[in-house]
Design goal:
Largest sheet: 6 strands, mixed
Distance between the termini: 18 Å
Radius of gyration: 19 Å
């Protein structure tokens, strides 16, 4: 049996400690902040990142350099026969397509399997965990890629943001919409299901936004995910770029809304936080893939 290594990027939100526990590798994603280059979790912490945001710094995400991707693969191929690489959704970044092109070249062809899972942040983390479990169950790298890509749409996540400022800076809403929305205390909810982060609903106030997200997930449980819920294949997830106290309050609200369903909670990756800002909260569902 071939030995299989698993890698992702830091858009998954997986910390170095969690990566070590899972037995995987995480490639830090690059940022530019006021023209300077930083690596997520390496040369900029979450606290420093949000401090820069509060100071209205010019922050932008960028793709990893091909040399950094290949260096990670080369290091892993010295230990493993094959690699599964799960980067951020191709709908959100060109880094997935770039990795796929690199994997077609020697000496990586047939040894590196890039998985376009269509996810980012907490759902991407869930897919990485699924990959670990499938490999431990004895599946080949090619089989794991096929299973994950076939089931990649079996998830949904909603994220509510506290401010429109960062959506405006990222070009996702116009300055006029941002100005009117701020005046009316509009809190937008974003929706990720098929690889794209898109507007879902606008709410007057953050309390209403939290309630609307829970209702959206309740509807998904009763419709799209009802069969998976009955099989016990469904995972309820919370996500946050808020304070520890606000995050704990959000998890408690979710647990009260869905009694008996365990809730896992993770921080939103900094790549997502570029657009949501500090204080965002999310809730989502993921199905465990069946071979």
């Amino acid at each position: 049996m071939h030995s299989i290594g698993i890698a992702t990027d830091s858009h998954s939100g997986i910390s170095p400690q969690d990566a070590e526990a899972l037995g995987i590798r995480v490639l830090p994603m690059p940022f530019t902040i006021n023209g300077e280059n930083y690596l997520e979790g390496v040369t900029v912490s979450r606290e420093e990142f949000f401090a820069y945001q509060q100071a209205d710094a010019d922050i932008a995400t960028s793709q990893p350099a091909p040399t950094d991707v290949l260096a990670l693969w080369d290091e892993m191929l010295a230990t493993y026969d094959e690699i599964l690489y799960l980067p951020i959704s191709s709908g959100l970044s060109g880094s997935c397509g770039a990795a796929m092109a690199l994997a077609e070249e020697e000496p990586y062809a047939g040894r590196v399997f890039v998985v376009d899972i269509g996810r980012v942040s907490v759902p991407l983390r869930s897919a990485v965990t699924d990959a670990v479990n499938l490999v431990r169950a004895g599946h080949s790298a090619a089989e794991v890629r096929e299973i994950l890509e076939r089931t990649k749409d079996d998830m949904v996540i909603y994220v509510a943001v506290q401010t429109l400022q960062h959506l405006k800076k990222g070009g996702r809403i116009s300055p006029t919409v941002a100005a009117v929305g701020t005046l009316l205390h509009i809190k937008p909810i974003l929706h990720l299901s098929i690889g794209l982060l898109e507007p879902f609903k606008n709410c007057r106030g953050f309390t209403k936004a939290r309630e609307a997200m829970i209702e959206a997930v309740r509807h998904d449980l009763d419709t799209r995910f009802s069969d998976a819920h009955l099989r016990g294949d469904l995972h309820l997830m919370a996500a946050s770029s808020a304070s520890a106290e606000e995050t704990a309050s959000w998890v408690a609200e979710i647990e009260a809304a869905f009694p008996g369903m365990p809730v896992t909670c993770d921080y939103l990756s900094l790549g997502v936080s570029c657009h949501t800002g500090e204080g965002a909260l999310g809730i989502g569902l993921c199905c465990s893939p069946r071979p």
